[in-house]
Write a structure and sequence with these properties.
Blueprint (H helix, E strand, L loop, with lengths): L27 E2 L28 H13 L7 H5 L1 E7 L2 E21 L29 E6 L5 E4 L8 E3 L8 E3 L8 E2 L2 E2 L8 E3 L8 E3 L8 E20 L8 H5 L4 E8 L11 H17 L5 E12 L1 E8 L2 E8 L4 E4 L11
Antiparallel strand pairs: 1-3, 2-15, 3-12, 3-14, 4-12, 5-12, 6-11, 7-10, 8-9, 13-14, 15-16, 16-17
Amino acid sequence: MNVAAVYPPLAPPANMPGYEGMGQGAGGFLPPPMPTQPIAPPQPVPEPEDWKIPSLSEDAARKVFKDYAGSKCCYSEGPAKDGVITQMEPQNTYRYRLETYVESRSTEWAHKPHNGEVADFYTQTAPQPWEVQATPPNLFSNGKEKIRVPYTSTVKDCHDCNGTGSKACDECRGSGYKTCHLCNGSGSNNEGGCIRCDSTGKDKCSDCDARGTKKCETCEGKCRLLTFIQLTVEWTNHVEDHMVEQDCALTKKDLSSVSGKELFKDSHYLVYPLLGFPNPAICEASERLVREHQSKYGQNSRILQQRQTVELIPITRVGYKWKGNSHVYFVYGKEQLVSTDYPATCCCVIL
């Protein structure tokens, strides 16, 4: 037997540190190396000189409400057009956001059809998983890269076809013929002999052109496989928001889709919780989330960068009267989205 075809070994050789678990299959996620960068020192927030959002005018509130109603095929324009605004109340809220951008690495055995590549197993010491060079995307952008680890590849006969390059056709079970569907294998029909199968009761298999075999899909007919350790590198941006409690009917999901006025941004390898923010709930959320993220994502991933921001999201509660009844809608976010239980809708039926 060809020595190069013996693969995978029961356990990696001594010159493959970092891949000790690969003899039993996938190596799984790999603990990251120890961090070399210090945590950034505490960053006090700036003085709140310009932390106010201009109030929404009645004209602007009325316009976005009309635009909202006009965008809905089942909404009457009545409430938006004829409703009389009776009250406008700002309910602006803070949003604290923490982003933790990490890189994780995992290993597994992989193979591909052998196209003449030279097997490099044993020729040099394989680089350890975290030493393999990878090209990350832009910071805080998700991505994935699969890399063949150098000096881990061998060549072996294809396990799926036993090195023949072909397999028996599943459709005809290797015979090259199938039962004729016109005569159900009888060779005849009501008018005499079956014309389609020439009275044989068998039809040529179209899947294998009557050969009885098909090219092996695993090795693509090459008979042999290049087998190697594959390193999967993933970059993931973990994002978590904390909204300061507010009285309006908007949900966290509603507010996650809009932007606000950025009051503070801090980005470092590891950020420090906020200090001295006017709203204590923001400082408490920062303290909790920073601690949780660094503990949770630092175990099986390498933290590349963290970023924390504080935004003031504009929210205006608009009360109005229409046909003698009082109603409410909310205008929120810099995008000025509208949320309301609209009082005049109809059912549209498409015929």
